[in-house]
Write a structure and sequence with these properties.
Elements: H1 3-13, E1 32-33, H2 40-49, H3 54-70, E2 78-81, H4 85-99, E3 109-113, H5 140-147, E4 151-156, E5 167-168, E6 172-173, H6 189-196, E7 202-207, H7 213-218, E8 222-225, E9 245-250, H8 253-263, E10 297-301, H9 309-324, E11 328-332, H10 336-362, H11 373-380, H12 395-405, H13 413-437, E12 441-445, H14 465-470, E13 474-481, E14 487-493, H15 499-513, E15 530-531
Parallel strand pairs: 3-4, 3-7, 10-11, 10-12
Antiparallel strand pairs: 1-15, 2-4, 5-6, 7-9, 8-9, 8-13, 12-14, 13-14
Length: 532
Amino acid sequence: MSTARCVWRTMLLLGLFTGLYAPITNNLSAQMLGLSEATIEDINAAFNSGTLTSERLVELYLARIQAYDQDGPRLNAVLWLNDQALETARILDEERRLSGPRSPLHGIPVALKDNIDTADMPTTAGSLLLAGSLPPDDAFIVERLRNAGAIVLAKLNMSELASGVTMSSVGGFIRNPHDTERSPAGSSGGTGAAIAAAFAQLGIGTDTGGSVRGPTTANGIAGLKPTHGLLSRDGIVPLALSFDMAGPMARHVYDVAAMLGVMTGIDPEDAATSKSADRFETNYTQFLDVSALGDARIGVARDVLGQDTEVDWILEASLEAMRAEGATVVDVYFPQWLLDIKGDWYTTIRWREFRAQIPEYLATIGPEYPKTLKEMVERSMEITSLTPEGGTPNPTRWSLLRQEEESGTLDDHEYIAMKNYGLPMVQSIVAGLMDAQNLDAIVYPTSPTRPSLVNGGGGGVSATNIANLTGFPDLIVPGGFTSDQLPVGISFLGRPFSEPRLFGLGYAFEQATKVRRDPKMTPPLLGEEIRR
């Protein structure tokens, strides 16, 4: 039986859900919102009016996890539940009553991808090779979230070690709440599915080549791959530090902006954050502007279209919506050589860095775990059947471990050339393209095709890793749905540390179109409305 299921049943036995659906107030004049519709701003209004408590909010989200992750469509997005979440909520409710909120995230539940360290819950990166691992402390961004009063509600399933198919050997395949035969995309697939299905208000994923943005678009939510260096990577299982970035994911652009500001800051343990000195903000909601598209120049990356007619149609409709808000839209084209080689340039760095950097993380956990990639390969070869705890072999990802082990070192000429010359070249090309047209952002369909099937098939060649090769920020906003009711997201790619401008553009687009919809497999439960 999973840890999540055991915790849930314990809660039921303790009677913690008595009166879950009882109304809190008879103030019928207040605005009623569905749980999935409510932003952090709405929830704080409900907290302030006394119609909602953090404890009840946690209960509502736990009820949805029970109904749709452990039962019903069984999305398999949640690996671990925090058995102290309700008690923490009660403490935070009392703190709010006595001294007020610490921040807009006070008492707000957040769910984390399982490669982000939490000292009180396992961090396995979805791998049986790290089963049961308890890190020595919280990741920097988790510490920031907790200090702001956020409640870590759950750890989420993911593509194992943040790469490969959308499953883990710890938790198995994850399913898309819009269509359980479809993939939620990876590697932050558990976060994408969980936030779309309203298992928490906020989610955190990580992005090395598109792993926040793929699940964001596939599940019909909003999300951000920040500028490289805007958020600390301390306490996050590395895939390739040249590209790795944690990213906020939520159902609403407002919530993505609110969450980002809590996590920024210079971290002495991560030198990359020094790039954000004097450039990070602690309140990105101030840049949300419904009129931001009025003076915007938007480039549309025509190169990545033509892979799915319906996705292309939604992009064209989105461009029309931007024009209607006053934006000037111009066609732009990436150099063909960049499109042809970007995948090889990416793996030249990604594979070698994982081989070199994963031992640094493994050194922080117990002696019973492997300490090198070579040891991980050796131990993976010993797991060829289902484990008594329900683990599943993951041959696709484990085969990739061998390729990573054989890829080379950070001293070889290919890596040095790519790191020192290749990446600056891509940065210069993309920045120059934006400068030449005086663009605020380049937009493109985050995924050029609709979500693929869980067991493979479908998918296309995406432009997402351009944002990783450059380190530039990329904000995703829901754009619409295909005829088979599958979501399509629109990316807003910007210059370094242009998150304030991207939030303005993305929020204006979101408010003009309002296309987000609840997934059909996870509809609202009775009595979960928020009375603002």
